[in-house]
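## tool: complex_structure
## caller: assistant
## args:
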Amino acid sequence: MERKQRRRQILEAARSVFAARGFHQSSVADIIEEAGIARGTFYLYFESKRAIFGELVDQFLVAMKNNVRRVEIGAHLPPPYEQLRANFSRAVALFLEDRDMSVILLNHAQGLDEDSDRKLQEFYDAMALALQRAVEGGQALGLVSIEDTEIAARVMLGGIKEVIHYLVVQDAEPREREQLVDDLVQLIFCGVIDGGLKQLREPVSRVPDSIAHLERGGT
Amino acid sequence: MERKQRRRQILEAARSVFAARGFHQSSVADIIEEAGIARGTFYLYFESKRAIFGELVDQFLVAMKNNVRRVEIGAHLPPPYEQLRANFSRAVALFLEDRDMSVILLNHAQGLDEDSDRKLQEFYDAMALALQRAVEGGQALGLVSIEDTEIAARVMLGGIKEVIHYLVVQDAEPREREQLVDDLVQLIFCGVIDGGLKQLREPVSRVPDSIAHLERGGT
Amino acid sequence: MERKQRRRQILEAARSVFAARGFHQSSVADIIEEAGIARGTFYLYFESKRAIFGELVDQFLVAMKNNVRRVEIGAHLPPPYEQLRANFSRAVALFLEDRDMSVILLNHAQGLDEDSDRKLQEFYDAMALALQRAVEGGQALGLVSIEDTEIAARVMLGGIKEVIHYLVVQDAEPREREQLVDDLVQLIFCGVIDGGLKQLREPVSRVPDSIAHLERGGT
Amino acid sequence: MERKQRRRQILEAARSVFAARGFHQSSVADIIEEAGIARGTFYLYFESKRAIFGELVDQFLVAMKNNVRRVEIGAHLPPPYEQLRANFSRAVALFLEDRDMSVILLNHAQGLDEDSDRKLQEFYDAMALALQRAVEGGQALGLVSIEDTEIAARVMLGGIKEVIHYLVVQDAEPREREQLVDDLVQLIFCGVIDGGLKQLREPVSRVPDSIAHLERGGT
DNA sequence: TATGAATGAGCCTTCATTCAT
DNA sequence: TATGAATGAAGGCTCATTCAT
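## result:
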């Protein structure tokens, strides 16, 4: 128990250090200073700087996997939308509750070495695949007409990642989380345009006053 | 002129090295070897390893800025959709034509140091702002009902980044670029669900045969 | 008494560890693992890693000193040869019975630090001196014509050390120990050439068939 | 040429440092201080501390191998004794001319790691084999009656090593080198006893005055 | 006495940058 | 302008030893 607590303490320290400076800018010296321990103690609990970083990432990925459930279709089950929304909600919650790890994962976790990159890649691939399956389900139900489900899934994944990243980096609890999730789900599944693309396709003759100022805007 | 060519030669070498290994894994030794020049020569043309990296990023960002134009609304102008689509098309083209830089920007350019991160941040912020303005334009035109245009813009930006990243990393010219751009625009503006969310909200009683296999899927 | 047993246990463990890996390659961790004790316990019995090593060496040197007796000359005493041979026999027995320590002494015990080196040096010096005295005795008896008895003693000492080392490292009980001792004594006192150097000094005109193959040998 | 000189300079520094303190007690810091160069410069010329040590050892072993020639038997060749003596003379000269390396080889070169130990082992094995072949030659010529030529060779090798070691550590040019070589050859081939072992086998009834003092000697 | 967590000095090695030629 | 040898700060990691329990 003692041992586990010390481990946790070091992990916390490392997490905050990595989040603040990134992997390369962070030295073991930074971590032990943050944790208030001696040099050797660090290596009593972790094999290397890489190892503790990997453990942090793994921890988070596992939590994420455990919180995202396959969308099942059936009469006695919640409608797909509810299931999807619940997944989104849990994922967003995880990210927002652990901003350090979010920053690490979305900002610094890439380009360390091939193994590490592959692990991350595989995680995102798994998320993308889950989304792709959901989209294919929608296709089968006749709700989706787009053909390239892989691209569709990637767009959705990217949207989620970027929003999370944005919110975390802004470091502002911007609004009600559930409202955010609703927006996110709607944007990702339905886009921004209410009635589809048709409306965009026509030339606009009358500029509403409300946006006239945009025409010659600054940077 | 001679000097400019030498600069360009070193920049090319650095670009390919950075793309292959990332910033931290790449050493000045790698770059000068790739360029076939001596150690000292490198510093005759660039102040530091960071400087040449920054220059590569800047170069690309400038090209990108030059290729993305503000969407103007007016009777004698192309419809907003055409303008938007043209922007997307040019951006995608830029990325796909310079995969090295795409990898660098989307994978390795973050977490180097505060200056660098801020510059990148500012670039993406600018892209997000452009998208946000477009969305606000749609709002004014009554096409968009979503209120949080900032989030909407971020979702769109993330979708684009992720797709580009995916395509570049896959290293496969997957399909007609224009077709891809069409899909991208549709996804980002209209989402995947044809008729809006309503359809997802209802429970599904009948599972189409075509997706029955998905219910108990593997990994 | 309990304490002495624990000491002995740790000494045994250290001996086998040192013999297997040498002083520098062996860590205190290795020793306590081999002994099955805790880190702190080690320092309850020995001041340092160096100390336990020194104690092992001392132990062996004392045993050796106790087993090598001065060659006494007198009418009622065994002939010098018997006494010398007995000394050799006991020394060889000691080495072969404690191969771990033999390896340590003959292989790893040098170059640790000045104190340690000096102690070892002194031991070998004592052995050399004993041999030198014996040679001087022979000189006085008219059996030895060589003048530099110091060198003679060193040659003899080196011969013994090398043979022991060889046998221990080979890890094979090569032959009857007493036969070995006989050979050793003969070699060290009488050399390999039966009739002295004269025979070697003359050119060889006729190559015996038995060694013709040696003239153009391999490695 | 410049580069070779710098290499040589570092090698010299390392040689003297290793000889003075041994491999483990010597740090790269010691070597660069002795050489008067910067830390990085060391690694410009040698891969590691181990590498430079290995190079020093190799250098010496090669020189030794080049100086020891197979003893050939034939009517038109110098008598075997001359050839043997010449080998000894060259070997002794090599050692005495490079005392640093002698100390390193005879004192510190063992127990570093398996590779290193094996290399050294192989070198001594080769020397032993050469001596064994010589002894076998003597056997064939009827000059040698001892049967175990392997042991004989080891005794000879040990005698040489120990004498060299002794002389080097004493750090005194003790006498004419050729005289030393003569003694060495005689001792190694003919032992110390003029007329063979028989003389030692008889009890001694009369103690010559000249050695009476030895009977109750000091340490 | 026994434990094992904690300590921190010390070492090897890397690599961006400088500078004499 | 070009070279490449030289620099030295910085960082990861080990391990003998201490100490609170």
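## assistant note: Residues 27-29, 39-40, 42-43, 48-49 of chain B lie near DNA strand E (CB under 10 Å from a C1'). The longest helix of chain B spans residues 114-140. Handing back to user.
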